[in-house]
Amino acid sequence: MTLREYRTSHGITLDVLAARTGITKTALANIECGGGCRLRTAKAIVDATEGSVSFEDLLVDPAIKNGNGATSAE
């Protein structure tokens, strides 16, 4: 599940998620747009979403993911 999918399905704004994670709203918006993030930031998001958003969702380029969530070997 992407970060944006998590937020919208749970009715959470960027402001609320920023308060829960300690990550700025701007940084979260950049991550939602595919900007990627550091491991520490990813951990904060995974923890705040109780694993609904995974490390793979945050650290793997969505352009190389295939339909079943696995990454293609290119």
What does this protein structure show overall?
It is a single chain. The protein has 74 residues and is mainly α. It is built from 5 helices and no strands. The protein has helices at residues 3-10, 14-21, 25-32, 39-48, 55-59. It is globular, with a radius of gyration of 12 Å.
Number of helices: 5
Low-confidence segments, given as residue ranges, are: none
Largest pleated sheet: none
Q: What is the ordering of alpha helices and beta strands? A: HHHHH
Share of helix among residues?
A: 40-55%
Q: What general outline do the C-alpha atoms trace? A: globular
Instruction: Give the class from helix and strand content and strand pairing.
Output: mainly alpha
- Give the radius of gyration: 12 Å
Q: How many E-type strands?
A: 0
Beta-strand percentage? under 5%
How widely separated are the two ends?
A: 23 Å
The overall pLDDT, averaged over residues, is: 85
